[in-house]
Amino acid sequence: MLPYSVNVALGTVTVRNVAVGEVAWGLGRTPAQVAPAWTLRNPGVTAPVIGARTPAQLEDNLGALDVDFDASQVARLDEAGAISLGYPHDLLAGDHIRKVTRSEMRIPTHR
Known about the structure:
Helices cover 52% and strands 0% of the residues. The chain is mainly α. It is elongated, with a radius of gyration of 21 Å.
């Protein structure tokens, strides 16, 4: 269960927020450590962006370098963090488009 926060009160907590929080608490870490540690696992990320404003927050974020995930934790975070590809992917992945582009639909000749 998430502790009280302004985000909970406003209803802006996402599935991703919950997953990061639960994995963090399961590891005895903070979400500010788990989120960048998870981001660093992505080979396309050269450096995670952290939002530390104080030395204490920076020190907390740097704890991400010592976070080790097991396979189930990574799977949980990856599932929660999956981004919908949206338009035009959803349109192009539709059955009717696939049938037309893969020649599964035949147009009868009029001869």
